[in-house]
Structure formats: structure tokens, C-alpha cells
């Protein structure tokens, strides 16, 4: 996982600001709002702009990446000319560090023709030091990784969906990943050589996708539900090194407890079959599921995870989140759920930079593992 818990010092400080003379040591919320306006962080959506941008820069430090600078960029826009059309969103997060590491992730959700068509585009580009444990539960449960390399990866996933019934869509997509395991250390190189695995892996496949989605706002839903299933076939015919298949399923439900509180539920599963490359095994943990574990520590052909999250909007731009969840993995699909389960609990801080577009800082706790996450938008 990419861990860069930068910024929000001012936002955190504002949690403790009182209207006393001593509090003048800190800027008040009105001053912070004025500064954020200069960065495009008005707590409103300006429909007159082609894209209503906001940006949050700041320094960070992690043991893996050392010192660096990061940035979060959020844009809201309307792809239709109708004034009441659904608001589309674009978010980008990026960083560069003193170790030479850099990375960025982005996600775009565009609603067209009165939400008859939807275009999604997610992706990442990174060059970061990466730890490696191997494949399966027993390899991941070892506290210390055995290998290291520098992950240089480009990953793109565009999807075009067409509405066929109320809240129901089908469509086609493409999943492309090119990963180079650069600068491998001796143990990782020996592991790859012994299994005759290449250090560079390209996976490219066409996807068929079905979605039922009644959520009110995809990056930060307060009500509704969503069921999404996609099947991707990777083949040399589409530019892939290996021929294999991946099926991914996710179900989310959002129950509003009040105007400021939501209970969110998530089920996620991924299944692979065929000649699956080492870089395309199903990962149990990431910045969305099973927060608290190093991404890729637990990986196998098949994974399943579930989580329940309580989200509370506080005063001003503040919010908090609490979650509990669990997950499991297996080599054979028939064994999924019958082996070891891993826990995930955590707490998160939310800062509303644009209307209903949160910057989130999460701290997840797993079994003998913890992790910080800084991202734009909710985990699910």
C-alpha cells in the first residue's frame, strides 16, 4: 500500500480551537476557510466552472519513502448541460519522496445523457519500494517479509456502462497493468529464478461488467446500495503475457442513521483461474478492503472480505469513521472461507474539502500489522 499521511495539521488543530484569547495562537476556522478558498476548497459546488477544482498540498514522512511532498486534487463537474444533472467527480492523489519514489492514483466518474451512460476511469502510476512475502496465508502470516524490489507499475481500468433499467447498467471495460520488479534483492531474485517467474509482467484483458447502483453519490454515499460484478479475460490476443481470468464481485449497502450519520456495509470477492501471473494474484488488503495490512502481504487465487463502517459528520468540515471487518483467502475456490480469517479494525478522520468529497486519513489495525492511508473519497 502507499502510505503518506500528510497534511491536515490545520484541520486537526481546528478540532481543538476554542474562542478564548489563548486560542488565538491557532488560526480560527474562518481563517482556515479563507485559506482553503484560495486552494479551491470552497464548501460549495460552482456550476459555472468547467471543472470546480480544489487542491491540498503538503509534506509527509514514512519509513519506506522517507521525506516527501504529496498533493490531493479534487474536481467536480457536470458532463451534461442540464442544471439538475448528476455531478461527476475526478480525484487525484500523488507524491514524490527523497528516496526517488513517486506515485499517483486517480479516479473519474462521469455521468452522461441524464445518467443513461456512465464512464469510469481509474488508474495508478508508481515507482515505490515494495516488500514481498509470497503466495498464500502461511507465507503472509510470517511477520517479516523475505524479499524486496522496486515496483514500477502503470495500471489503467476504463469502463463504459449503458443503462438498461432503473439503476441497472451493463458495459465493457479494459484492464491493463504493466509491472516491472526493478532492483530486486538477492532473496527475491532467487525466489523468482527458482520458479522461472519474469520480473516484468504485462496483463491486458477485456471486461464484461454488470452494475446495479442506487447510491446517491458514488465517492461518498449516504443511502442506497450497489452490486457490481465484472469478468475479465486476459489473453495474448489483447496484449497479455498470460492467459487467465478474473471475476470480481462487490456489494455495498448504506443505511442513513440520521442526517449526519451513515452505517456502510461492504462485501468484496475476487477469483482468478488459468495461468495467473504472480503480479495478478488476488490481494486481500488495500486502501479499501482490510485496511491495516501491507498490500500484497496476503495474496492468493481467491479472496473474500467483509466490513461494517460507521461514518459520523461532525461540525464544520470534520468527520470520523470507525470500522470492523474480516477476510480470508485460498488457493482453491471451494476452500474459500474454510481456512484462517484475519481481522481488520480501525478509526479514520474525514475532512470535507469539497461538497461531500472527503479527504480521509485512516489508521487500520490487523493481526500483528497496522497501516495509515491517505486518500480522496471514502473506502467504499
From TrEMBL:
Tell me yes or no: is Signal among this UniProt entry's keywords: yes
Q: What is its main location?
A: membrane
Signal peptide span? 1-23
Give the UniProt entry's GO cellular component terms: outer membrane
Spell out the subcellular localization from the entry: Membrane
* Superkingdom classification of source: Bacteria
**InterPro entries tied to this protein:** Bac_surfAg_D15
One Pfam entry name: Omp85
Q: Does the keyword Secreted apply?
A: no
How is this protein named in the record? Answer: BamA/TamA family outer membrane protein
